[in-house]
Amino acid sequence: FAAITPANAMKMNVIQPVRGRFDFVDADALYAFAQQNGLEFRGHPLVWHTQAANWLEEEGVDRDTTLAIMYEHMDGLMGHFPDLPYWDVVNEAIERNSEGVWTFRDTFWHRMIGDDLIDLAFQHARALDPDAKLLYNDYNIEQLGHPKADKVFEMISDMKARGIPIDAVGFQSHYYVEPNGNTNPGVPNIQAIRDNMARYAAIGVDVHITECDFRIGRPLDPTKEELQKSFFAGLLQACIDAPNCSHFTVWGLSDVDSWVPSTFPDYDYAHLFDAQFVAKPAYAALTTVLAQYNPDGTPIGSGGGATSTGGTPSTGGAPSTAGAPSTGGGSRDDGGCSVGPRSNTLWPA
Ligand code: G3I
User: Fold this and answer.
1) Active-site annotation holds for 92
2) 263: CA distance to ligand 1 center in Å?
3) How much is the pTM?
């Protein structure tokens, strides 16, 4: 692995539990872990309606005060982490309203600030950090033709056309198979995801897979596990093949502390390792995809890889060095998940 995203440590209720008092203990610990292990560290999220601070609705009495709170929060968080390469600036801000129209999600932020909430958040993030890549991050936006995906593409195209500083879109990629084995709509059409990545490339927007997992409706069975395996492998291959897809991040490593069962009680088994930390077929499938490439991303046998430090992929046993963030000067951003083939042992003695 080459990058880490905090699942909760940067959320507003954790980071700013009292207005003006920031608590960076958890986020700092993760950041230190990332530094010690040569991992990129991603900022997640700046503006989100879920896990907002308890005091937000009391203090934000009108547009101006709510906007001031949003800016103060961004100032505090981005100011504390001034060198992160990526920020999820706005998270999950689009939904279908009661009339069936896909539009801005009805959140406290949106009610108080209005339709320019997203523009203002991105402009402020850019003013605070001219170098970071700024993302809009959401779920069910991966497949071209899905009404939410089309709405978000329209929104981001419009932002680009108006000069709003957005660099990338985060496809969260939370997919599933239902308890009775139904695959529609939980198993994505990978071609539709490839087509969606391509239309973002055409408007100069990168794609990051930001929260990939595949939950399985109980009971677990081999057919469902096979769907999970082909989902992970198919999505990773789609990302590798797209010139504008630079990151593939999984949302949690193992079933031992998954976010899934408390949110979807009929589901579990969403991650690459089971609750005993044994790698699943999906993990092996990812390593098979990655084994086609040198650590610098060139296909093995293509003559590439000369500038890489790893040379050939790890063949097992020792921890791979392939996951270190790219330091080369290539035109492509080569960060993200880099899992090398090795045994099922996570931390060899
Ligand atoms: O920390 C408290 C603890 O003190 C308390 O005793 C306990 C009792 O409920 O709750 C703990 O907080 C929980 C927190 O995770 C940390 O474990 C919250 O209840 C729980 O709701 C929260 O869930 C997180 C969820 O976001 C909240 O919406 C998940 O861990 C986190 O994985 C999930 O991540 C989101 C992404 O940020 C955005 N995209 C969707 C994704 C999955 O929902």
Assistant:
1) yes
2) 9
3) 0.89
